[in-house]
Design goal:
The complex is a heterodimer of chains A (about 525) and B (about 300). Chain A has 3 domains: about 15-105 and about 170-260, P-loop containing nucleotide triphosphate hydrolases (Rossmann fold, 3-Layer(aba) Sandwich); about 265-365 and about 450-535, Rossmann fold; about 375-450, no CATH class. The radius of gyration of chain A is 25 Å and the shape is globular. Chain A is α/β, with parallel strands linked by helices. Residues about 1-10 and about 265-280 of chain A have low confidence and may be disordered. Chain A starts with 14 loop residues before the first strand and ends with a helix. Helices cover about 35% and strands about 25% of the residues of chain A. Chain A is built from 19 helices and 22 strands. Chain B has one domain (about 10-120, about 140-295): ABC transporter involved in vitamin B12 uptake, BtuC (Orthogonal Bundle). A two-stranded antiparallel ribbon of chain B has the order 1-2. The radius of gyration of chain B is 20 Å and the shape is globular. The chains are: A alpha/beta (about 525), B mainly alpha (about 300). The interface of A and B includes residues 60, 86, 90, 103 and 119 of A.
Chain lengths: ~525, ~300
């Protein structure tokens, strides 16, 4: 191991990694189609593309998770074959996966030692030394004895980076590393990346966010539908203005559609959105949370402590916070999927404490879950049945216990048309639809039949840009009439700023504060999120 | 009532607890290793049965119970190869495969026994006990606790071997990782299948030895279906032990006491129907589960097959 960063030979700009014609086909999907990629040492190379563009597949090929069907990989000019993660590690390729691959009930040290042991006995001392050296180099602080699951997501990521470096990685792949981080966590990550570049590492940074690619990358490669659309090199990036860059990339990501997509929140400038502000006139209070307490289930950290909130008619109340800070328990307690340990939830003045999920649903309290496949739909049942699955046994779809297929079908046809769900027919099993269309089915079901308050939990997570725009339009459309309200839980700050009237910040199950959307809201929210992370 | 709780009664209960608890201890230690690696070996009882049969036949044939124990271990490993092939390699459902193993081993051992011995049940010679000098002279408990066959001391030593393996070695770390987050282990460049295979084979060896002990030491005889639910009690003990072998030892002795009290009460001639007394071990299981099951801990990836890069 010797030095933490054995950076190989060659000039500072030497090409360390060369992918040629990488093709990977899954049943029905060409995830990578003859992709070429060059990565030099000492650079952060951003891989940009929508969800499903093939970024993660390409990197998983490099990390030995998938075998490519075609193409070759060269490292330091030598052709290599990577058939398992071990090969990748031995060749100096380290990957930090999108979802933490640390073991939550292992200590930091145990996680580091995994797969690094030599001989029979665990060598705790050596791991401790290695950890100390790397934390010093990167300028981060990590407690070696801490249980990893208790660390913040930002710290977990630092541990993963340290782990990759300790394995002797010279090419470090970060898969959507900022998706779970607070603004402070992202700052720390950027600092660590600068350190890594100086040490001569090559970093491949996967993201679907334009702003991030500009801010962090030295070069940007754009993938679309499994193909490499082009690479913007360092010189161009330096010379071009922000708007020019944006146009350049949008043209690569969505050829021919740049014009029509100009309005999509994710692609437009943040300051315009935040500054826009929303109608400050709030209607009647619709949903009131009074000191809501939710007890944690086993192994679940994110419990909810004494949260009071009010959602008014015509209002979107955003809930910001890093994933796992109590968002899901809060949402489930509101809609009745989880018992309240204390406090009360009132819908239009009536206490819901004693009402079950069905009763709340019929009163107009709806839930768009973030677990779409798990609890959102029954995959093997038809689209039509999924559209009424929360109304089983009730009129007009069921009368005296008898199903009325023609009423259900008519209802489904109408919703499929209205929400432009792309499905072969209403009898198609919902599970065979694409993720975006499944979400459309769920949104259609929850927004139909007179909704009063809809709880959206990460409603656009993992969706493509167009579906995202459609879902966001539905959320605003729901409340803009002034009759309904929405609670929008999201980990995407841009989304919250684009849609919410007010944003509540949740951290470790506590309400840190509520910010009215407008100029400066982003900074305020960021500050509240950091406050929560430090104030254990 | 007072009359039956004599020193003799306690001595009988204690020696009986070890006699009855040992097969549980060995099998539960094995199950602990599997569970930590993410394999739920429901077929444990079947493994014990084949171990018991092989141990008995080989001891009967060679006259050496040491060779019998080795045969029991080999039989256990052979059964666990089924787990390896179907569950670890092919990723089949562990519950289904486990039940299949249990049923087929019950059938196989009954068939082999009937074909070989018919209706006769030959007895093995008692395995000689080895007193530990000094300790065995303690009044009352000494002779019963510290005068045991050598294999008992080996079994207790195995508790600490397994404890050390799990907590102090690279293999132990890999095993625990395989049961919690196999993806992390795979990403760290360790072959998850290899680790789970090793774990399954260890389980087979220990459960086979436990079965062998049951036939050679506890009973001195082989009777079809002689394990009578011990394998399942061992699974419960392993779950309640939460991956800590010392707790597995304590749990096994507790159940051993329950099993031997049943025998001792009958010997003491207490006026309780035998059926009620024989329920005791199983009542103990139910009570233990009702009291402690909330604290039972199962590794996150238990009973989940691992396939790299599955989407």
């Amino acid at each position: 191991m010797g030095s933490a960063f054995s950076s190989g030979s060659g000039s500072p700009d030497a090409v360390v990694l060369e992918l040629r014609g990488i093709t990977k086909v899954f049943p029905g999907v060409r995830a990578n189609d003859h992709v070429d990629l060059l990565v030099r040492r000492g650079e952060v190379h951003c891989l940009l593309g929508e969800n499903g563009a093939g970024k993660s597949t390409l990197m998983n090929v490099l990390a030995g998770i998938y075998m490519p069907d075609e193409g070759s990989i060269r490292i330091d000019g030598r052709e290599v074959s990577i058939s398992c993660p071990r090969d990748a590690i031995d060749l100096g390729v380290g990957m930090v996966h999108q979802h933490s691959s640390l073991i939550p009930d292992f200590t930091v040290l145990e996680n580091l030692m995994l797969g690094r042991g030599e001989g029979w006995r665990l060598s705790t001392g050596r791991a401790q030394d290695g950890l100390k050296r790397l934390t010093t180099t990167l300028g981060v602080a990590v407690d070696p004895g801490a249980e990893t699951g208790q660390l913040s997501l930002g710290q977990q990521q630092q541990v993963e980076i340290i782990k990759a470096l300790w394995q002797g990685s010279r090419i470090l792949i970060l898969d959507e590393p900022t998706s779970m981080l607070t603004p402070k966590g992202i700052e720390d990550l950027e600092r660590v990346l600068r350190q890594l570049k100086q040490q001569g590492l090559a970093v491949i940074f996967i993201t679907h966010k334009l702003r991030e690619a500009f801010a962090i990358g030295d070069r940007v490669s754009v993938l679309r539908q499994g193909r490499l659309q082009g690479t913007i090199d360092r010189e161009t990036m330096k010379a071009a203005s922000a708007t020019e860059m944006q146009r350049l990339v949008v043209e690569l990501m969505f050829p021919g559609e740049a014009e029509t997509l100009a309005h999509v929140a994710e692609l437009s400038d943040l300051s315009e959105l935040g500054g826009g502000g929303r109608a400050a006139t709030a209607g009647e209070p619709l949903l009131e949370l009074h000191e809501v307490v939710v007890a944690g289930q086993r192994g679940e950290i994110g419990i909810v402590e004494a949260i009071s909130l009010t959602i008014h008619a015509g209002e979107v109340l955003g809930v910001a916070g890093v994933d796992g800070n109590g968002q899901r328990p809060l949402a489930e307690a509101i809609v009745g999927q989880r018992p309240l340990a204390g406090g009360d939830v009132r819908l239009a003045g009536t206490s819901l404490r004693r009402l079950g999920i069905g009763a709340r649903q019929r009163r107009g309290l709806r839930y768009v879950t973030d677990d779409r496949l798990g609890e959102g739909i029954v995959g093997s049942m038809s689209v039509a049945l999924n559209l009424v699955s929360k109304r089983i046994g009730t009129a007009p779809f069921w009368v005296h216990g008898r199903t009325r297929p023609e009423v259900i079908a008519a209802h489904a046809e109408e919703l499929v048309r209205e929400y432009s769900v792309a499905t072969p027919s209403i009898h198609t099993p919902a599970g065979s639809l694409s993720g975006g269309n499944i979400q459309k089915v769920i949104v259609a079901r929850e927004l139909s039949l007179d909704p009063k308050v809809v709880v959206f939990n990460k409603p656009t997570y993992g969706l493509d840009v167009k579906t995202t725009a459609a879902v966001r339009a539905r959320i605003r459309g729901l409340v803009d009439g002034g009759a309904a309200g929405a609670l929008l839980i999201s980990t995407d700050l841009e989304e919250l700023l684009a849609l919410s009237d007010r944003v509540a910040v949740l951290s470790r199950g506590r309400l840190m504060g509520i910010v009215r959307n407008g100029p400066g809201a982003e900074q305020e929210i960021g500050a509240l999120m950091i406050g929560g992370e430090h104030g254990e | 009532m007072d009359s039956i709780f004599t020193a003799d009664f306690f001595a009988a209960v204690l020696s009986g607890a070890i006699l009855a608890g040992m097969p549980l201890l060995l099998a539960a230690l094995g199950e602990t290793i599997s569970e930590q690696a993410g394999l739920l070996d429901i077929g444990l009882e079947g493994t014990m049965l084949l171990g018991a049969y092989a141990g008995f036949v080989v001891t009967n044939w060679t006259g050496s119970y040491w060779v019998g124990f080795l045969a029991a271990i080999a039989a256990g490993i052979a059964v666990s190869l089924l787990m390896v092939v179907f569950c670890v390699r092919m990723g089949r459902d562990q519950i289904v495969v486990g039940i299949a193993i249990l049923l087929s081993m019950e059938g196989l051992t009954s068939l082999l026994h009937a074909a070989q011995f018919g209706q006769s049940y030959p007895r093995l010679d008692a395995v000689p006990a080895v007193p530990i000098p000094g300790l065995s002279e303690i009044p009352v408990v000494g002779p019963s606790l510290f005068t045991q066959p050598l294999i008992v001391y080996i079994g207790v030593a195995l508790v600490f071997v397994v404890a050390g393996l799990l907590s102090r070695t690279n293999l132990g770390l890999d095993i625990r990782a395989a049961g919690r987050t196999p993806v992390a282990l795979d990403n760290a460049g360790v072959d998850v299948m290899k680790i789970r295979t090793v774990a399954a084979l260890c389980t087979g060896a220990l459960a086979g030895l436990g079965g062998g002990y049951l036939a050679i030491v506890t009973a001195g005889i082989f009777v079809p279906f002689m394990t009578g639910g011990l394998g399942f009690i061992a699974i419960v003990i392993a779950m309640l032990g939460r991956g800590r072998p010392v707790w597995v030892l304590i749990g096994s002795l507790l159940f051993g006491v329950a099993l031997s009290v049943a025998t001792a009460l009958q010997l003491a001639g207490i006026n309780v129907p035998t059926d009620v007394v024989q329920m005791l071990p199983f009542v103990t299981v139910i009570v233990a589960l009702a009291l402690f099951a909330r604290q039972s801990y199962l590794p996150a990836a238990l009973a989940q097959p691992f396939v790299r890069g599955r989407r």
